[in-house]
Design brief:
globular, 16 helices, 2 domains, 7 strands, alpha+beta, binds iron/sulfur cluster, 41% helix, Endonuclease III, domain 1, 418 residues, Nucleoside Triphosphate Pyrophosphohydrolase, 7-stranded mixed beta sheet
Length: 418
């Protein structure tokens, strides 16, 4: 068996664990933010109507990669529209995408709805209530979301590890090895499971995440106001400066501890507690260019209408609507880009399109998590009517208001504004 990590990286003293839980929960009771999903689950622990959609499930899925302030409005509209598992199971993907439009990472909404269908059709309408079952049985529910639902909605004493918890735990225990590595993540899960309060697991987990979101923030943590500073190894180290040259019995061996910063990147005094956590450098996003064209015609009442087409049902922005678009090779000349786009439009319209007739509008940049996307935007006003080929992907003409209400991505809204 691998040797246990040195004591400074562990919570091995039961009295300290107890004190930390008490201090954190007392702070949470005093200072927690009033968020809509908290109102619904307060005092809940599985006693509520099992037909209702668990608030924490919806909020946790929406909060993945998304700020709280952005999520609140989406969350309220979602819960109003689909308050029960049954209602969500009956929704169409189109409705889900419309409500999700602008929130990003669209597969999240789709999988939430698929999971509700599964609960209703295969699990007799009963949500699984342990982290293990939630993760095993529901699509789109990973280890973190399963732990959050099980502890907050059903009172299971199980820990959670998200980005905020990673930061707090790495600082509490001076973990400076790559915090995205599986070995470190496993240690953090062990730690979260040791720490979680047995009688108030949901509140404890929310408190730890709340601490990371409001006090132990990435760049300028408010250590002076922190309810657990007396348990924080990074804070002590900041106060007392560099560790002694000769490590004490509690300290790590130099250079060979799997949880300490690598010997090549030692503690930097000026960074203080923000020495932790550390992550291996991210790969830069992939650059992509896409030509897109806003086709405009006069509708039957004389108001302008625009053609939108539906993206494939899997992959990036699956099932969303967009102006006819075509991925481009990186180093094409402008003239060639136009020609390729004109050929592509011809396919939609079933009639020749002159490349010269396309009006260049400008370039719009949108950053997805892993793609740096440049949309090269053109427009084309049509005189006569156009018959769309029903054998191609779904497409439709929409007015400006209909475009805004459709399931279109934030990137397409930027194209629209251009
Ligand atoms: Fe984070 Fe500072 Fe609190 Fe430590 S003392 S947990 S670094 S806010």
């Amino acid at each position: 068996a691998p040797a246990p990590p040195p004591a400074r990286h562990l919570f091995s003293d039961p009295a300290e664990v107890e004190a930390l839980r008490g201090n954190l929960l007392a702070w949470y009771d005093r200072c927690k933010r009033d968020l809509p999903w908290r109102a619904l689950v307060r005092g809940d622990c599985g006693k509520r109507d099992p037909a209702l959609l668990p608030a924490v499930w919806v909020s946790e899925i929406m909060l993945q990669q998304t700020q709280v302030a952005t999520v609140i409005d989406y969350y309220n509209r979602w819960m109003q529209k689909w308050p029960t598992l049954q209602a969500l199971a009956q929704a169409s993907l189109e409705e889900v995408n419309e409500l999700w439009a602008g929130l990003g990472y669209y597969s999240r909404g789709k999988r939430l709805q698929e999971a509700a269908r599964k609960v209703v059709s295969e699990l007799a309408g009963r949500m699984p209530s342990t982290a293990e079952d939630l993760q095993k049985l529901l699509p789109g529910v990973g280890r973190y979301t399963a732990g959050a639902i099980a502890s907050i909605s059903y009172g299971q004493a199980t820990g959670v590890v998200d980005g905020n918890v990673i930061r707090v735990l790495c600082r509490l225990r001076c973990i400076g090895a790559d915090s995205s590595s599986p070995a470190v993540i496993d240690r953090l899960w062990d730690m979260a499971n040791v720490l979680v309060d047995r009688s108030r697991p949901g509140d404890f987990n929310q408190a730890l995440m709340e601490l990371g979101a409001t006090v132990c923030v990435p760049k300028a943590p408010l250590c002076g106001e922190c309810p657990v500073k007396q348990h924080c190894q990074a804070w002590r180290r900041k106060l007392f400066g560099n560790p002694p040259k000769v490590p004490d019995v509690e300290d790590c061996g130099v250079g060979d501890c799997p949880l300490c910063p690598p010997a090549t990147e030692p503690w930097v005094s000026s960074l203080g507690v923000t020495n932790f956590p550390r992550k291996a450098a991210k790969k830069p996003p992939r650059a992509m260019r896409t030509a897109t064209c806003v086709l405009e015609r006069r509708g039957c009442h004389g108001a302008p209408e625009y053609l939108i087409v539906q993206r494939p049902s899997s992959g990036l922005l699956a099932g969303l609507w967009e102006f006819p678009s075509l991925p481009l090779a990186q180093d094409l000349q402008e003239e060639r880009e136009r020609e390729e786009l004109a050929d592509h439009l011809q396919m939609w319209m079933g009639q020749p399109v002159a490349a010269k007739g396309l009006r260049f509008i400008g370039e719009v940049i949108h950053i997805f998590s892993h793609i740096h996307q440049t949309y090269v935007v053109y427009s084309l006003a049509l005189d006569g009517d156009v018959t769309l080929d029903p054998a191609l992907s779904p497409s439709r003409w929409v007015t400006e208001d209909e475009f805004r209400a459709s399931a279109v991505s934030t990137a397409m809204k930027k194209v629209w504004r251009a």
